[in-house]
Write a structure and sequence with these properties.
Elements (H helix, E strand, L loop, with lengths): L1 E9 L3 H13 L5 E5 L7 H4 L11 H4 L15 H14 L6 E3 L1 E9 L4 E8 L4 E12 L23 E3 L14 E5 L3 H10 L5 E6 L5 E4 L4 H7 L4 H25 L1 H15 L5 H4 L12 E4 L2 H7 L3 E5 L2 E5 L2 E4 L4 E3 L2 E4 L12 E4 L2 E3 L6 E2 L3 E2 L5 E3 L8 H22 L3 E4 L17 H4 L20 H10 L7 E4 L5
Parallel strand pairs: 1-2, 1-6, 2-3, 4-17, 6-21, 7-16, 8-9, 8-16, 9-12, 10-11
Antiparallel strand pairs: 4-5, 5-6, 13-14, 14-15, 17-18, 19-20, 22-23
Helix pairs in contact: 1-11, 5-10, 6-7, 7-8, 11-13
Length: 486
């Protein structure tokens, strides 16, 4: 069985939903379909079910510009985010476009036919089916949905309690009145700690090194004031703009004056935990924004530490014991349950096998064009987000640009557009520049960045907005061809 559409969107999470709405509104004459490997929309927000799962960005910017967040809180829980996405799908009547249980495995481009042939595994029938399209839009996120990352703990089997990775958490897990050790110090660990502490006997976060943690009000003060006299959607749009500008300002000053920002963050934590060893447990060795900064709503993390319900230990694991974890310092952490919040496995385009005219194209051999397309791969785009701001912001810009490209092709009769790197002097750089472990483990499997535009990504929404929305589409580096290869 073969199906054909003009644009094939892969993924029905935040980026896939955004892509579909943009196609619907800006390219109304183009047919499109959405292939989703799972049996539900939502991506991350349907997959993760661990206690306390919430946004690590404010919802005014994580939400869509075309459907502003109207919720009561700025930092929302996973269930609220998933409902927001479901409501968006319903409002824009996208459900009929989504095909569930469809895993995209291979994509082969034919220049002669100017189309992609996409091989899809249907998990419901166990059979392979083919789809064809003129443009392939990958909205698959950046990590492996099947499993998270767990370091090689050779003796973890010695531990007689439960060992759980947050990515595999389900509602049947009982943690009431248990002693829990969370291994990790990233956003997941910092989210889990206060939530587990509400029912557990005690929760310990075991980290090798600290992370920057910043508390923000769960409700946006300006947003709440604006809602008092403006329609909720108008208030949402204005709050979104404020948060975009504020996050850009904070990122810029963090890069220009890292020590000043570091002292500011640490001083705020000292105010929250006056009798705590902040130097050891909350003072990172790296600069702000060398890794993402973790947000906590209304100081919930610090509150459970002050109340004695939770603790933080900074040390290295020596070995696992039947009753817990023996540390290199000689201390043993007693536990009934260990949660390995040790990170994600990155997975570029879901490890899609890509061929162009019979030649296998490997991602690390390509260079990213505007963070959206890739050198020598025609008619393919990837929705990607920012590392220093909400994922949705960049995803919407990419969708905006894809629609401009598609409309240019339709207007001028082009059938193929391919980024071409003609300048041999462009130097290579890693796709992502954060020092986080989950990025460093996999960055070699991603395309490269270049040393100049349009082969370089800028972590700057306003700059990208002008380039993606108003910049020249036919810039000489995106090659367009007509039906006869002209």
């Amino acid at each position: 069985m073969q199906n054909h559409v003009d644009v094939l969107v892969v993924g029905a999470g935040i980026s896939g939903i955004a892509a579909s709405v943009y196609l619907q509104q800006r390219c109304p004459e183009r047919t499109f379909a959405i292939l989703e490997g799972r049996d539900a929309i939502g991506g991350t927000w349907d997959l993760f079910r661990y206690p306390g799962i919430r946004s690590d960005s404010d919802m005014y910017t994580l939400g869509f510009s075309f459907r502003p967040w109207e919720g009561d809180v700025s930092i929302a829980d996973g269930a609220s985010i998933l409902q927001y996405l479901k409501d968006t799908v319903s409002e824009y009547k996208l459900e009929e476009k989504i095909h569930y249980g469809k895993y995209v495995q291979r994509a082969s481009w034919s220049s002669e036919d100017a189309k992609w042939t996409v091989t899809v595994h249907d998990k419901h029938t166990g059979k392979e089916v083919s789809w064809t399209c003129h443009f392939l839009y990958m909205c698959t996120g950046y990590y492996d949905y099947e499993e998270g990352y767990t370091p090689d703990f050779p003796d973890i089997g010695t531990f007689e309690g439960e060992v759980i990775h947050p990515q595999k958490w389900d509602e049947s897990i009982d943690y009431k009145d248990k002693r829990i050790v969370i291994i990790g110090s990233g956003a997941t660990a910092i989210t889990l700690l206060p939530s587990l502490a509400t029912q557990a006997k005690h929760v310990t976060m075991l980290q090798r090194s600290p992370t920057y943690v910043v508390s923000r009000p769960a409700k946006d003060p300006l947003g709440e004031r604006l809602k008092a006299f403006l329609p909720r959607r108008t208030a949402g749009r204005l709050t979104r703009l404020k948060n975009i500008l504020m996050s850009m300002f904070m990122y810029r000053i963090s890069r220009r004056r890292p020590e000043k920002v570091k002292h500011f963050i640490i001083d705020k934590i000292r105010e929250e935990l006056p009798d705590f060893d902040v130097d050891t447990h909350f003072t990172p060795r790296y600069k702000p924004w060398d890794q993402r900064i973790c947000l906590v709503p209304d100081s919930d993390l610090f509150e459970v530490i002050r109340d004695g319900k939770a603790s933080v230990v900074t040390d290295h694991i020596e070995t696992f014991t039947p009753d817990g974890i023996l540390l290199q310092s000689g201390e043993e952490l007693q536990a009934d349950m260990i949660v390995t919040a040790t990170g994600l496995k990155l997975k570029f385009m879901s490890h899609l096998h890509v061929e162009v005219d019979g030649k296998h194209i490997k991602a690390p051999e390509t260079m990213t064009y505007k963070g959206a397309m890739f050198s020598d791969i025609p008619n393919l785009a990837l929705a990607s987000g920012y590392t220093n701001a909400s994922w949705t912001l960049k995803c919407e810009l990419v969708s905006m640009f894809v629609c401009r490209v598609l409309n240019t092709m339709k207007k001028k009769g082009y059938v193929q557009c391919t980024p071409r790197l003609h300048d041999g002097s462009v130097e290579e750089a890693p796709f992502m520049d954060l020092s986080s472990g989950y990025i460093q483990r996999a960055v070699h499997t991603f395309p490269k960045l270049g040393s100049r535009r349009p082969w370089r990504m800028h972590q700057n929404y306003v700059r990208d907005l002008f380039e993606f929305a108003f910049g020249t589409v036919e810039d000489g580096e995106l090659e367009f061809l007509g039906p006869a290869g002209e």
